[in-house]
């Protein structure tokens, strides 16, 4: 499978997201040092690099889970120094986590419906009273959730508690929950970790479909270089918390620093 | 000024006793991650057993030895009968299990030894001593000395011996400790036994002060804010926390009590602990964990 | 015949799927149960059963529900249930005392709202403190409330021992002070509040509670207002406990002092929730029934089997031991409580007499 079979990505010239001079450290341990890069609206951008390169930390900075010591994140033309996870979500940033962060006690459907919470209009009191408008709205959210379950082929597990699903399906449910928010920017942290070839292909197709069909901008972290080169429009390479390459897949592949970081050449 | 000092030192000395109960907590928490609500009832059980044996004609040391033995059996039973079956359960479950344990111990203690108040005479005089114009109780000084010795012994045990090293390894990461050949069961056994011993000493001192009665098990409610202030995992924290709680509740009783009504020592430590928590959510000496997602 | 057969019962609309009782048999069953509780029980049950067993059972179910919403659904452990009950009862008493002509049901409601406010105040630390450390906040509530209600005479209209007494219980001129009347009053309040609770936990708020309970970082990342969600759990949970407190004071006991709402009461409600099942609505009834009936059963058994051998003080200690053992057994064997046993039974009944 390759992205060639797909229509071109709906990339616009303007960046949707710009990371500017971000530095982050934990009690003196530097996770990320002075990183800048931009993600254009509509592209699939991959963050790659060896373990511990600071990729996940960077995602955590973008959606406000961590607060960087230096630098800023510009999203949709607005620069923010202190964004909270919730404000990031409200502005259209959704994400998945490296170690699946689902609500384990809830069913698949409830997890996805929880992902719609930003679109819920009726307050809890009106829902409790069972007012007509609230019921109609609930039907609408359910319909949307069902669409997403169908899109990711997990309708059959609708009522299963997510804790009981195998890992690969949990990753899919997490993606479904992120999609339920109808995000403009989707941050995926190793969506294919621990998957076999077939599952990886399925997931790659889902990501491409999301990007092409909904025009969602995607930033993903992935270790499988084959997949990365296939589906990305843009690749950013980190090593030891610094950026060592940034460009189209083909450019990055031939970059000597990247080769050194991955294969380890004689310095 | 002398009066202030007297109140302060009296409070600190009472605080030492809180620390002692709190140390039992910390040990168990470090070794098995259990927040042991039954610590208070263990204190009650120890004191009640000891005093009942004395009343039945046992000599001091033989009663002490017999009580210690029964504490070890109790600790073993808790480990075997309860905690071993709850491995890998969330902390809340473990906490509630120890709540159940405290019910059993309290019921058992009173079933065995009756519910009446027993006087306990350790042969330590309680007379006021004067130091530079400040009056102090000799009993409180003795209690503080005992607690200090106990704390010193425990810190040596856990910093200088192999058992101590194993304990710290278990506290840090039970699985990793297991994989390098540390026997978890043995560590747990040792820790519960030591906690039983600490309860016994605390029970004797508290019992001699207040009389041996059911309310002894309520010291657990004093130890809780002590732990919150000191952090669940630090022996030093338990000591400092105990001193802070002891001193501040006495000062509050004397200086704030007249303004808003007396009897505030029940809730004051909690409000104090809450204030501490709002400033330092992991306690004074607790380690703040970095949340990884 | 398959008693709980689902044959021919399809969900054709999303609304069907949202029903609490999806099976026709279950709906008939619940109607029968309600009819029995409202019509048959008040006529047939003895005064002893009504006032000493059924009323406390219902009130404790309600208090359990309040704690379950907070702890079982929203994941915020509380040891201050009795404090919120006390706030509700004493506030209702004062509204009744100081507002001329206020219907007592309105004072129950207002008492619940005051308890909700107290819940929010003591829930505020939950925004900064997580998990275990949080019990210090609700324990502070427990001790502070008990102390304040004893210390300041105003709360009990300067009764020397802080005792408050029930207002005359009547609705629209109908006197409800008989055991059957108090039972019906309690039953009605409990029915309404349980229906509301079922709807809350199935609303988006309930889903948000569970999300915060299961993983609050992820909840924040998908945009759930974590702070607001937690505080609402405290408010609503404490409201339920507050109303339960009013019923406990006025429909069950008649008079109550602050120490009637001590830490042991909080533990009692906590046990109801554990034994019944955290995160279950039905579990509150099962747990409360267990807690109310077990001591009765024990003293009856003790009386008939061992008549005279065990003195009453020992029965109390034995009861305590048995409670402890049962709690531990439940935690080990059935961590999801009686409600989970019930679910298992129902699953078996679905295919009975066949086996799955």
The proportion of residues forming helix of chain A, as a percent range, comes to: 25-40%
CATH level-1 class of chain C: Mainly Alpha
Poorly predicted residue ranges of chain C: none
- Major sheet of chain C: 2 strands, antiparallel
Count of β-strands of chain C: 4
Second CATH tier, the architecture of the largest domain in chain A:
3-Layer(aba) Sandwich
Give the name of the CATH superfamily of the largest domain in chain A: P-loop containing nucleotide triphosphate hydrolases
What is the gyration radius of chain C calculated from CA atoms?
A: 21 Å
How many H/I helical runs of chain A?
10
> Largest sheet of chain A, described in full?
6 strands, mixed
Q: In terms of quaternary structure, what is this?
A: heterotrimer
What are its keywords?
heterotrimer, A: about 270 residues, alpha/beta, Rossmann fold, 6-stranded mixed sheet, 4-stranded antiparallel sheet, C: about 350 residues, mainly alpha, ABC transporter involved in vitamin B12 uptake, BtuC, two-stranded antiparallel ribbon, two-stranded antiparallel sheet, 14 helices, 4 strands, about 0% strand, globular
Provide an overview of this structure.
With about 270 residues, chain A is α/β, with parallel strands linked by helices. Helices cover about 35% and strands about 25% of the residues of chain A. In chain A, the strands form two sheets. Chain A has a six-stranded mixed β-sheet, with helices on both faces. In chain A, strands 2-1-4-5 form a four-stranded antiparallel β-sheet, with helices on one face. With about 290 residues, chain B is mainly α. Chain B has a two-stranded antiparallel ribbon with strand order 1-2. In chain B, helix 1 (about 1-30) crosses helix 10 (about 235-260) and helix 9 runs parallel beside helix 11 (about 270-280). The longest helix of chain B is centred in the first third of the chain and has 31 residues, at about 1-30. Chain B is globular and about 60 Å long. Chain C is mostly helical and about 350 residues long. Chain C has helices spanning about 15, 25-45, 45-75, 80-100, 105-125, 135-150, 180-200, 205-215, 215-220, 225-255, 265-275, 280-305, 310-335, 335-350, and strands at about 165, 170, 175, 255. A two-stranded antiparallel ribbon of chain C has the order 1-4. In chain C, strands 2-3 form a two-stranded antiparallel sheet. In chain C, a hairpin with a 2-residue loop joins strand 2 (about 170) and strand 3 (about 175). The longest helix of chain C is centred in the C-terminal third of the chain and has 28 residues, at about 225-255. Chains A and C meet through helix 2, helix 3, helix 4 and helix 5 of A and helix 1, helix 7, helix 8 and helix 9 of C.
